[in-house]
Queue: 4 jobs
Job 1
Amino acid sequence: MKTPPSTITPEAIITGFHPVGSRSRDLLVRHGDLVGRKALAILDSAPWLAADREFVIQAAMLHDVGIGLTHCPDLGCTGSLPYVCHGVAGRTILDNLGLQRHGLVCERHVGVGISAEQAGRQRLPLPVRDMLPLSLEERLICYADKFFSKTDNGRQEKTVDEIIAGLVRYDADGAGRFLALHRLFTQPPGSPAVSADTISENLGHS
């Protein structure tokens, strides 16, 4: 049964898995708020895009809910899964609550999405299936998320160059996908395409 958006309280859901006063809960609420605000600011500056703003706010708050099942002491997480699994874990949590649409955001925001080919090639401990953001809202949260790190509690927003430099160290495909999202959210339809030389230069930035 589909849960009506107006009845969803993201912070209450987070608290169900991350108790009040825990480091992971404080980080999740702070990070989710930053990503949600960034996503709405992007929409405000891109009037050619129409997104479900209420859903964006909810999904931004919930996209990292699965981190509690991973082992990441720096974030106060003492679970057993590798951190890369937090998206799949979050989808399971939200699917079980009847929030399948929100769950897809969890699964598809990790990295800049993860393809089946990438999961297999890098031998990631993940289902070998495409986990790439598809809907506008999925892509928007995936993009906005990259500007903030939970490890510094969002104290400094990253630049586009910093994001690309970080992504290219792991997988050039992810850096390319980020650049595609950057164009989607910053260039109105009909704008001149970014040249291949510019993309190559950005991908080589380190």
Job 2
Amino acid sequence: MAKRLMLDTNVYDLIVARRGFAERLNQAVLAGAIEILKTRVQDEEIARIPNARKRAAMRAIRSRVVPVSAAAWSGPRAPSEDAQILATAAEAVDVLVTEDKEMRERAAAQPIEVWGFDALVAFVEAS
């Protein structure tokens, strides 16, 4: 069974910056080792990237969009983009991959495993 991942937008930057890694990641998706889920939040953040080549490379990462979790909207105010990603990840995936220290700290209270980029690389390389 594929390991379900959600990538924080900062991880997309690291993926496309590492030569050849996006291709290896996509191969792992095609092989069924991983499934990458994302929300409209990541899509919107990627759409705001001014560099067209970088934006296209990020969009080429194989993933599936899922709705933002209703749990993200449980507070009295509109949730931040990070809160939407975290709440959705907690419901929909096995692992959240992020380099954001604050998000990692908030994720500690959630029933979800959290990896940094290096752990993602190690998992994909071992697949």
Job 3
Amino acid sequence: MKLYTRHQLIFASIISGGIVCIAMLAAFKINAVSAKSHSAGTAQGSDTAVSTALTQTPSDTPVQDAYKVASPSAAYTPEEIQNISVYEKCNEAVVNINTQVTGINWFLEPVVQDGGSGSGSIIDNKGYVITNVHVIDNATKIYISLSDGTQYEGKVVGQDSESDIAILKFTPPAGTVLKTIPFGDSKALKVGQKVIAIGNPFGLDRTMTTGIVSGLGRPIQNSNNTIIRNMIQTDTAINPGNSGGPLLDTSGRMIGINTMIYSSSGNSAGVGFAVPAETAQRVASDLIQYGKVNRGVIQASLVQLNSSIADYARLDIAAGVLVSETEKGGNAERAGIKAGTQAVRYGTRSPQIIYLGGDIITGIDSIKVASLADYFSALESKRPGDTVSVTVHRGRRDIQIKLQLAEKTDN
């Protein structure tokens, strides 16, 4: 075994320690450089990701441009831009309608009271406004308020309870240019199509709501017990005060007149109905031109059939419209429709004479007639001179009779 002196051992320890220190310093330097490189690369990647997520700029766009503030128009979605466009185009043509009615006070004296309120649309530069009949029911005074705050007294040009459409008119100062809403094509509507309503729910002027067409061709009975056919069903929020206002397509055309809602509370429940523009436009044209709607009629006195009459007359059906009398020389008599011959007193409070034994109308064209409401609804769109196919029940069998409609007279 080899022996070492004290000085040799000290010298060897110093040399070994130095080698270890040098090795540790070298390793530390390598790790530091590696960490720095990794950190720089991560930071650069993170900045690029944030820039891309915020701005989605093309690769050739300078980095400093990626953080520029977007223009105001870019802050809206295409759907929002569409909504804004329709509102700005149409809201000034929507009016607020308030009425006054005559009531009786405690001393049985007539007094003027606040009536109802609703909406309407200006459809002509002369000041014609379309709304619902029930908006102006029993009104002695009608006030029409425009978007600029001006208010005018309106007068009734004509009203048609069978379609719940009324036309009002106000007279603006000379030189006033009115915003109007054009009619659209309600026959081209599709379920799922977006629609927009503007009105005055709860007196909140020109409120806008959006939704879709939920259904088409709905026969709905209104408050006058008249069935309005081909109503547009929508989930657009319609509340008290929206009645008479426009239902619009995304181009700002009026495709319906908001008329009623189905709700247990009286407020919007997602089921609203509008009179289609096809009906509203036809009715409005007649009301403006004639003050009434020119519909074709069957010249006969009719009674709604019920179980009491059916039992008494021993009929085999209990639904339809009984022909009590026909006008002498009228279209019903000429077509061969049979009137009743057996006179009976009908009714309790105000009994009237009706005649049993005549034909029972059960259909007009393709529309089933089970009541007077159905009968008037079936003729709602018919003109004098139109030929219709009338289904009558006679002697326990159905007969088809062709009949040319006549013009309605005061009688």
Job 4
Amino acid sequence: MLAPVLPEIGQQTGTGPGVAGALVACFGLGQLVGYPLAGLLAQRRGASWTLRASLVLLLAGDAAFVLGDGLAVWFPARGVQGLGAAGLWIGVTFAILEHWPDQAYQRVSGALAAYSAGAIVGPALGAANGIRAPFVLHALLTLAAFLPVLALGAAEARARFGADRSVLRTRAFAVSAAGIVLIALTVGTIDGPLPLHLSGRLGQTGIAALYVLTAVVIAAGALFAGRVRPTTALVVAAVLVPAGVGFVGATDSVAPWIAGLAVAGAGLGLGEAGALGILLAAVSRERIVTAWVILAQMWAAGYLVGPAGAGLVAEALGYAVVGAVPLVGSLLVAYTLRSGSPRDQD
């Protein structure tokens, strides 16, 4: 939702892609802190409590954007929303592990497609003129989200989630982590400095429409990922993602931007589902907590580094080079896939 609003924030504050990237990165910082806290809450109180607390934090961030004014308010507000988003992801995935442990990969793929559906709505909200209006609309949707969360019943048997650090030494975890870093770097690049590049040809509504289209493709990629092997999905993503982002940054007209973001979007949907599926296939839910939380923190770290790094790259070398940021993640995926360890357990 924030991406179409970034050019307006830049105009009002007189800032460029570096500040835009840092504002997006604040969300990742909030997530980095929020994931272990949410994991602890989910273990002690269950998924439902985690989801409710997360929605409250999202509402608090919305209120700061609606009632506050200026970067001094907006930066911490994005951090608070990052905390809420972290809890939302942990709550959703732990609910899946509680209720449908035998269908975890397929259900998580479906959840990722649902996240992508939300990513369709998000840019559409961002098309509302100005800075405050999109956050008012987001707050209304967040209030509506309380209804299904409140209706979420308890699992037939309470799941016992345990911490197991030995999972972190497996090849499955290494490959999954590399895949998540690739996805986070890419999303951070697309959400951070790239909208300022697109604003050369598109207004706030046009950028929102382009991001809606991208989200549709991401959703399709996530759904398709459930039909192929997780490793296959991740390998294809490692090729598509940097190619798509690089093409967008290197071109200056709308048609290639549409094509490039469609390619990157397909890779994002495939890659995130594939990365998570590799871990789910190798680790039982009783052992997954530590690995799952750390994997989520690595996503947050990538989303922290991605927009900030891509913003600095864009300012120093131009938008044509921003594809190098997700390329780092693709190289990491290739390295972990080729490098086995004597302690591999998958």
